[in-house]
Amino acid sequence: MEGDAGMPVGPSDRTPSVRNNADLFSPVSVGRISEVIVEQMRLLIREGKLVPGDRLPSERSLCERFGVSRVTVREALRVLEAGGLVEIRVGARGGAFVTQPSSERIGEGLAQLMTLTAMTASDVTEARMVFELGILPLVVERATEDDIADLRVLVEQGLSALESGSYTMAMSAAFHVRVASSTHNPAIEMLVHSFHGPMLMSLQQAQVAAPLMGPRGAHEHFELVEAIEQRDVERARAIMTRHLQRTADRLAEDRDPSLADLGSGQ
Amino acid sequence: MEGDAGMPVGPSDRTPSVRNNADLFSPVSVGRISEVIVEQMRLLIREGKLVPGDRLPSERSLCERFGVSRVTVREALRVLEAGGLVEIRVGARGGAFVTQPSSERIGEGLAQLMTLTAMTASDVTEARMVFELGILPLVVERATEDDIADLRVLVEQGLSALESGSYTMAMSAAFHVRVASSTHNPAIEMLVHSFHGPMLMSLQQAQVAAPLMGPRGAHEHFELVEAIEQRDVERARAIMTRHLQRTADRLAEDRDPSLADLGSGQ
DNA sequence: ATGAGCTAATGGTCTGATGGTTTGCTACTA
DNA sequence: TAGTAGCAAACCATCAGACCATTAGCTCAT
User: Fold this and answer.
1) Distance from CA of B123 to the nearest CA of A (A)
2) What are A215-234's pLDDT values in tens digits?
3) Rg of the Cα trace of chain B?
4) Measured in angstroms, what separates residue B259's CA from nucleotide C10's C1'?
5) How many Cα neighbours within 13 Å face the side chain of A26?
6) Residue range B241-264, pLDDT digits in tens
């Protein structure tokens, strides 16, 4: 990455004889064949020619169609799979199936890379606060009866799980995501979802999950639903602020650990 | 190497006599070998045993170390590359190099999947409004002189590009991202980055980019920087609201196209 | 009916070989 | 001496053909 930072990047530094037409020539590299295949597949999926659930031809068929070897096709499939665009099943009737892109899946990839970036749990929490507070007006305005009913169920489940000591961060996350989905905006829902993924993963591994979300948190969930039902933006905002702030404080007092540290169990 | 991978590892698939303890046995699948390698590499990177810039051993060396064939190693490298963890260079002194994960890269993945979800441009714009407005207090509070200087430069560039008719959406995006990065929170920066990815891509293809961002937009950028410099949250918020609202209106009158439709040029 | 066994389809992996690209060195030329 | 052309080595990219493991569906005897 750094070693070649000083390398000749421009095409115009050797051979001082002919030089003025240097930028006439465009790079001729066609790149990797597998990359071309990947791009072609991606296009098909984006254009809707391939929809979730569809099965791609078998590796061997693809070889013939593209006129390449199996290795190349397989590399393309690996890339698509890593990108969460297809799922590969083995055995008869197996093959590559186009997947339904879920926000969960996106969050997964996000979480992976987050553990590698200089991104602390506090950073993520701060972003959450901005976002989850910001959407409250939309939630209060648009939440339907169904939305509220669902939220009630989640709260109930949370409370009873709390009694039996089986309350998990996942349940809290589900609640927050359901709140976000009450905006009826898929982009917002996806983002909240993706944010909870990495938080969950790291917090659970660090075993601060249990004390993090106690009876207070569950009760605040209950209050929030009430505020939404009464279309009381200010109250909802106050509750959510308190709720998230407590998470933030908890994180701060816990040595402000970076996600990476948490991830490695240190 | 593989010959014994298929040996009877699980004692639990024949002998139909015992049956009620079915869930005692965990699935015996070892999965893909390449996946194991990927996981191992990821761990090394996360633990800091491999830092950005490091060069991994050559494919052939890795084959020997892992005791697998080159095909398998290559598939692992493809996955790592697709995940943005390594970069592969050909030729002498080539090989796989650990990359510095940037928020840009992360946002890319998010953007990719955004374009595949049933998500309209309005949805994304609404999410943007929530987020970019929400971070303004943080920006105003934390922007350093360097931040503001950078923003000024971007505004200047925008204005002169406007005169020469070469103003692009990319320039606008760069400005918004730079504003976000003035929060000094990498998570926030990443999110704004990923928002602009899909917007850019689709809007440019649909050729509504040019009229979208006229002199008004560029001037609003200028005003916003002023408000930030004066630490005037309310004014900044007002400007940004107007700025984004205009984008939203423009999108709304433009048949409210979905990102997917735009992507395919329809 | 039920279950055991067969079969074909399909992905997972290995082996060995060839070609292309880049770097660095060397020898030759002006 | 300087510059250049050419060679060699270290890489990745790709191919071709083979074998094994897993799975779904079918058949057939019990």
Assistant:
1) 6
2) 788 889 999 999 999 999 99
3) 25
4) 36
5) 1
6) 998 888 777 766 654 445 444 333
